[in-house]
Amino acid sequence: MFPKLLIANRGEIACRIVRTARRLGIPAVAVFSDADAGALHVDMADEGRWIGAADAVDSYLNVEAVLAAAEASGAAAVHPGYGFLSENAAFAAACQDRGIVFIGPPVEAIRAMGDKTAAKRIMAEAGVPTVPGSLGEDQDADRLAADADDIGYPVLIKAAAGGGGRGMRVVERAGDFAEALASARREAASAFGDDRVLLERYLARPRHVEIQVFADTHGTVVHLFERDCSVQRRHQKIIEEAPAPGVDAALRRRMGEAAVAAARAIGYVGAGTVEFLLDDDKSFYFMEMNTRLQVEHPVTEMITGHDLVEWQLRVAAGEALPCGQDDLRIDGHAFEARLYAEDPARDFLPAAGMLSHLRFPAEGAHVRIDAGVRQGETVGIHYDPMIAKLIVWDGDRDAALRRLRTALAGVQVAGVATNLDLLAAVADHPAFGSGDVDTRFIERHAADLFPETGPASGQFLALACLAVLLRRASEVAAAARASADPWSPWHSTDGWRLNDDNHHVLTFDDGGRPVDVLVHYRRGGFQLELPGADGALVAGGEMDGAGDLVADLDGSRITATVARHGDELTILCGGASHRLTVVDPAARAGEQEGPTGHLTAPMPGKVVAITAEPGTAVDRGTTLMVLEAMKMEHAVTAPADGTVTAVHYAVGEQVEEGAELLAFSVDGDAAG
Ligand code: MV4
To answer: Cα 196 to chain center, whole Å?
Structure first.
């Protein structure tokens, strides 16, 4: 086995690989950029090597820097993880040239699968089912239109050099083909520098079912069954599971055999994933092959009991696979939920911030947490916004789903917006519970999954008041103890007033809405007059140092966690959370303005589409411009009903964070 392993990645996957290396007694070298100097993966590894500036192109994508770190550390092998250089054929080749083992497939296999057209051609020749269509041998527009007629509408246009949905266009009728082709070509050229397309018959409600394959250097190829990854938001997987609902043993065998045939067709070695589209009638079609370890590999590990990173290391060291196909079994069911720092209130744009509070459920036989960050660390915008993966297992799907729901309720995050509520909403959804999943699940159930964030409930408001009041009391008590005159009335926090009831107004900002609570001080607690409530609520409680609050609200005992980050409070209670900002009464003088007329770039990026027409009235939420940042597209939307009055950038231009993109006149706003 290797005397030392360098991990050319960061975050949760780097931590995960270190854990296996440690278990196998292999010294691990972490690499880090300026942004990751104190990161968890560096602390966990045996060595850390700086490789460059925060921007990935200067560090984790910097082939020379990574190889220099490998050579300087004496690493015999490099594990690329996923993303970054993991499917970069030039990097794999450079490792070979420098005598460093690349933990992954042969360079030719990476190259072959990198081009969707070539990959599809190879698979078709290998007898792997592919979607009927045209490989676009002739890219002439009229020729492609004729191919589309032969396929029959609806037709899907796909970027030959693409993946993940970029450059895809569904065309319902012949009359729309020419424009859709032009649009797809523009996006493909912009995203991949290659505007070639291929055409396929469009499957209306497919599922994304992928097969984990593994091949060694002795001719053995096995599959480790399937994963269903249909629940995706804008081509980003959010919850995956294994085995796939509704896949019976016969279908599993057919898909597994097709995946093994696909791997053999390209002389595969190592861990790979063959992605299929599974149609309602149980027909399945090759979509693409990923020549890396996938993010979602843990669900396969949980149902098979094998460590796929250990298998990767052993195969790369020339060992035979630890077991054959007949030795592999499915035991139980597993789910993975991906916790991302994304802001649901901003169309799931990547969110940045300090994780002032981060708690996970206890790990064990049923719960595994693959995290890349710790409480107190900052999530930036340089990299994929993954915080952690929550993986659960149990004997069958229903039991595993109960574990998932419970585990999600045990996740607590404050200080940065996350997709936690969406994960819980999907896990709780009846359609998900019945296994009725397909690639349009999120779209079909959007009304249930993205409820408008309403105002804080009376309970959450009361808990926020208690948190503020108890904290003030402890701060003042501490100050009194430290002062020369501990008994001074100035140290009292009982709201005492001359000739008046002891009371005080607490003001919060709740999603842009000011909320006042009248607090009456009473022996041993408070009476709270909440907006819209009939009668006051009697509240008391205690808060411990970890931010846990044990409250008594009108006689009901409620435990909650209160995470405070500056003036922002996040109340976490019963699996739900709500953010409120404490407003200093003096600050209310300058009333907050409503939606502004200036739309600025939330992060550095490139303008890839402009749909705003100056002078055209638009509704709140309408997409006006699309930016591309960190390989993802981010929509700039109308903050209110109004009119775009000016567009300051053109497609293709780079914008800095904070740059004013458009001028916008809010309806009824005199400023215009
Ligand atoms: C398709 C399809 C329907 N019909 N191909 C999306 C990105 C790339 N992985 C291929 N994708 C699709 N190809 C045909 N002929 C629907 C999708 C698709 C999809 C596939 C898997 C997971 C999520 C998806 C979301 C939207 C569309």
So the answer is: 29
